[in-house]
Design goal:
This protein is an alpha/beta fold. Helix content is about 30%, strand content about 15%. The strands form 2 sheets. A 6-stranded mixed beta sheet has the order 3-2-1-4-6-5, with helices on both faces. β7 and β8 form a beta hairpin.
């Protein structure tokens, strides 16, 4: 008899992601990993660490900072980079506002302004491959992405011009000025992410777990009451126990009422939900039915 060997679902996802990360490191000159401090980028960073351990990461981390992030997330970002001894680059949206490259509109989020800062940072640092933590289950535009997503000299994405990836063979060919966005977590789901966080004991900002805070009820969502967001006339402000499913800017990221205080509890909640985290808690994704795809065509994450 011949003994069989079969990877578990999580092991197979981990192996695929590690292969993708190593493939990029071997074939590109100047890759960079986008690290915001959120759960997906934390898992992606852990996979990259395992891909090259015991050697250090062979590429830097980069965060596009809108200036409106939760303090807990920024602190976690800095502490994680320091703990790993990783180089952390920060592209600041405020620099582009001050230089007149983008214009801030009063009352709007800075979500769309990130694109100019991201493309400037890629151009200035001459990065030819950019790791992102997007997953196909998050949103319909992201479901169209290849693992290797080609971007032209303007950083734009054309869903009709993507390359086939038959048998997990990836085409990273590009000319000077072009680059590839790489998504090692493409085939993961939110549930997969949390099961891996639980199994690998991946550290996260405390906001992902249940805590008491004041919230504002707006458009069917609960938004954190903070210095970037104030209640409008007629809106209800109250204190409750919540957690965040995803972490973006503090003025547009919603939370959900929850008592899930650890990864095991979050897994139980996630297993029965029918809404993706972006669809349920990201106000910046509600601009239109094609809002995400329109931004990606301009060079967004």
């Amino acid at each position: 008899m011949r003994a069989g060997y079969e990877l578990s679902h999580l092991d197979a996802l981990e192996a695929e992601s590690v292969h993708i990360i190593r493939e990029v490191a071997a074939t590109f000159e100047r890759p960079v990993l986008l690290f915001s401090g959120g759960k997906d980028s934390a898992v992606m960073l852990e996979l990259a660490r395992r891909a090259f351990w015991p050697a250090p990461l062979p590429f830097p981390l980069m965060h596009i900072d809108t200036g409106r992030n939760f303090d807990e997330v920024i602190n976690f970002r800095d502490q994680t980079a320091e703990r790993l001894g990783a180089q952390l680059l920060v592209g600041r949206v405020q620099d582009d506002i001050d230089a007149g490259r983008v214009t801030e509109v009063a009352g709007e989020t800075r979500n769309r302004l990130q694109t100019a800062t991201l493309l400037r940072s890629i151009r200035e640092e001459r990065f030819d491959a950019v790791f992102g933590g997007a997953r196909r289950d998050e949103e319909k535009a992201r479901a169209k992405e290849r693992v290797f997503s080609f971007r032209d000299e303007f950083g734009a994405w054309d869903p009709r011009a993507q390359r086939p990836e038959v048998w997990s063979l990836y085409n990273g060919a590009h000319r000077k000025g072009e680059h590839i966005r790489v998504f090692p977590l493409s085939n993961w789901t939110e549930l997969d992410i949390w099961e891996y966080i639980d199994r690998a004991e991946v550290a996260l900002p405390s906001l992902y777990y249940a805590h008491r805070r004041k919230v504002i009820e707006r458009d069917g969502m609960l938004l954190a009451d903070n210095r970037f967001l104030t209640a409008q006339p007629g809106e209800r402000v109250f204190e409750t126990t919540v957690r965040f499913r995803t972490l973006g800017d503090a003025d547009c990221t919603g939370c959900v009422e929850s008592d899930a205080a650890n990864a095991t509890d979050v897994i139980a909640e996630t297993a029965v939900t029918r809404l993706t985290e972006r669809g349920a808690t990201r106000a910046d994704d509600r601009i239109s039915d094609s809002g995400m795809e329109d931004r990606k065509r301009e060079g967004y994450f």
